[in-house]
Design a protein that fits this description.
480 residues; alpha+beta; 2 domains
Length: 480
C-alpha cells in the first residue's frame, strides 16, 4: 500500500486525534484570515461636520496616512539632518541641549493635482473644484475685524485667504450658509480677485471694484505685497468654523480668492497647498455607479478620505488610526500561538505512536518515510480544515473587524475624556459615526493563509519528529 493510503487509514483509525487536529487547524486558519482581512477592511463612516452637499463627492487628506508617511520618511533619513519627499529635519540647540526640529512643506501636505484630475476624468463627473488650505495673510491697506476684549499678542494679526478653482462649489456656498449680497462670485480662470465679508467691507468702506493689498503674514517688514480686486461681498447665516484659534481665522476675516492667489501671498508661488477637492456628479440618479467608478480610479487611495453627499466616508482600515498595526500584531500572535499548539499536538501524536514507530523502524522502514507519512496525515486533515475555514471566514472576519474598530473608537473616546478640560475648542469638534465595516477575503489572503498553515504544520511535525526518530528501535520498544 502506498504512503497516501497508509496515511488515510491512520486518519480514520484514530478519529479523536484527527478531530483534535482538524479543530485546531480550522481555528488557526479562521483567525489568520480574520486578522489579515481586518487590516485591509473598508470602514464606512459618517462625518457630521464635513458633509459634501449636493450630488457630489469630497476628497480630503487622510490624517493617519499623513502620520504614517512622516514616520516612514523620518526612518529613511535616520539621525541626520536633511530633506526627503517634502519632509525636513534639522538639529538645533536650545539652552545647550540638542533637539530635532522637523517640518513638512506644501509638496508633502497638498492633495496631488494628478490624483484630482484622474478622479475628475471619471465618467459621470460633470465638474470639480479645488480648495486651498486656509492661508494667513497680512492686511496692508485695510483693517481686519478684532475682538477688543481679547489679547492679540499671540495672534498673527492677519486675515484668512481661501482659494477656489470654482467658488460656486466651495462648501460654504454649496451648503447655503454663505451667500453673495453684492457683486458676484469669482469665476474660474480669473486672477487677483477676491470676495470679502460684509463686516470687513463696512469697517473699511470697501465696495465692488475696490482694490486691497496683502503681504506675507509672518514677514511684517517685507515689502512684497499683492493686490486683489473686490468682485463680491458675502454674508453668512452661521459663522464659518475657524481653521485655528485667533482673530486671524475668525469668520468675518475670511476672504475668498482665486485658486493661485494664497500661495503667491505666502511667498510660495507655484507651490500650492490644496486641502480638498469637490466633484460634482452630472446625473443624481447615477450617483452610486459614479461613486464606484471614482473608487476604481488608479490613485494612491491610502492618502485620502472620500466623503459622499450624506457625509459618509469610505476609508481603508490602514488609514483608520492604528488598525493595520493591531491586525498585523494579531496575525503574529495567532501564528506564534498556533505553532506552539501544533507542536504540542504532534508531540502527543508521536508519543501515542511509539509502538507503531518502533515496529516500523525495526522492519527497516526509513525514518524519513515514517516522518513523511505523519506529515501526509497532518496535511490531509489540515487541507480539509482550511477549505472549510474559507467558507466561514467572511462572517468571522467582519466580526473581528467590527471589534477592532470599536476598540479604536473606545480608545479615542478615552483619550478625549482624559484631555477634557485641558484643551479649549472655539467650535464643535467633528463628530464621526461608524456605519459599518466590510472585511473582504481576497484570493491573495487565501493563498497566504494556506501557505502559512502548511508552514506551521511542517515546522511542528519536523521538530516533534526529531525527538522520537533520533532514537533507535530497540530503545523505543524497551520503554513501552
Amino acid at each position: 500500500m502506498n504512503g497516501f493510503g497508509l496515511a488515510w487509514r491512520s486518519v480514520i483509525r484514530k478519529p479523536i486525534k484527527s478531530v483534535l487536529l482538524f479543530v485546531t487547524v480550522f481555528t488557526i486558519s479562521l483567525l489568520l484570515l480574520s486578522g489579515m482581512s481586518s487590516g485591509k477592511a473598508t470602514i464606512k463612516m459618517q462625518d457630521h461636520t464635513r458633509q459634501a452637499v449636493g450630488a457630489g463627492l469630497l476628497l480630503e487628506e487622510n490624517e493617519a496616512d499623513r502620520h504614517r508617511r512622516i514616520e516612514e520618511l523620518s526612518r529613511q533619513l535616520g539621525h541626520k539632518e536633511g530633506s526627503y519627499g517634502g519632509y525636513h529635519q534639522e538639529k538645533i540647540t536650545v539652552n545647550g541641549v540638542e533637539n530635532w526640529r522637523t517640518w513638512t512643506d506644501n509638496s508633502f501636505e497638498t492633495l496631488l493635482i494628478e490624483d484630482i484630475e484622474a478622479i475628475a476624468a471619471t465618467k459621470g463627473i460633470a465638474d470639480y473644484n479645488i480648495t486651498t488650505v486656509t492661508t494667513a495673510a497680512r492686511p496692508v491697506d485695510f483693517i481686519r475685524i478684532e475682538d477688543e476684549d481679547v489679547d492679540q499678542y499671540s495672534d498673527l494679526g492677519g486675515v484668512s485667504l481661501i482659494g477656489n478653482k470654482d467658488m460656486s462649489m466651495d462648501s460654504n456656498f454649496l451648503s447655503g450658509n454663505a451667500f453673495i449680497t453684492e457683486g458676484r462670485m469669482i469665476q474660474e480662470g480669473e486672477k487677483d480677485v477676491c470676495v470679502i465679508s460684509s463686516e470687513l467691507a463696512d469697517k473699511n468702506q470697501l465696495e465692488i471694484g475696490s482694490r486691497i493689498r496683502f503681504g506675507k503674514c509672518r514677514d511684517k517688514e517685507g515689502s512684497m505685497t499683492y493686490e486683489a480686486e473686490v468682485v463680491g461681498i458675502y454674508q453668512v447665516k452661521q459663522p464659518i468654523a475657524p481653521y485655528m484659534f485667533g482673530d486671524t481665522y475668525r469668520s468675518e476675516n475670511i476672504i475668498f480668492t482665486d485658486l493661485d492667489f494664497p500661495e503667491k501671498v505666502d511667498g510660495k508661488a507655484g507651490d500650492p497647498l490644496y486641502e480638498k477637492a469637490y466633484f460634482k456628479i452630472a446625473d443624481v440618479n447615477d450617483y452610486e455607479n459614479v461613486k464606484k467608478s471614482v473608487m476604481g480610479a488608479d490613485i494612491a487611495w491610502e492618502r485620502y478620505d472620500l466623503i459622499d453627499n450624506n457625509g459618509n466616508m469610505n476609508t481603508l482600515s490602514t488609514n483608520f488610526n492604528e488598525m493595520e498595526k493591531y491586525s498585523r500584531a494579531l496575525v503574529w500572535v495567532i501564528s506564534g500561538a498556533g505553532l506552539i499548539i501544533l507542536f504540542l499536538i504532534f508531540q502527543f501524536w508521536m508519543k501515542s505512536r511509539n509502538r507503531e514507530i518502533g515496529i516500523m523502524l525495526s522492519m527497516g522502514t526509513l525514518k524519513i518515510r515514517i516522518l513523511a507519512q505523519i506529515m501526509t496525515e497532518a496535511l490531509m486533515i489540515a487541507a480539509a480544515a482550511v477549505l472549510i475555514s474559507f467558507l466561514a471566514a467572511p462572517g468571522v472576519s467582519g466580526l473581528t473587524a467590527d471589534y477592532l474598530v470599536e476598540q479604536q473608537i473606545q480608545s479615542a473616546e478615552e483619550r478625549d475624556l482624559l484631555d477634557e478640560g485641558k484643551v479649549a475648542f472655539s467650535y464643535e469638534k467633528s463628530g464621526q459615526d461608524v456605519l459599518g465595516v466590510e472585511a473582504e477575503i481576497t484570493s491573495g489572503m487565501l493563498m497566504q493563509d494556506a501557505g502559512g498553515i502548511a508552514l506551521l504544520i511542517t515546522i511542528s511535525v519536523c521538530v516533534s519528529g526529531i525527538v522520537i526518530l533520533k532514537r533507535n528501535p530497540k530503545d523505543i520498544l524497551q520503554n513501552l
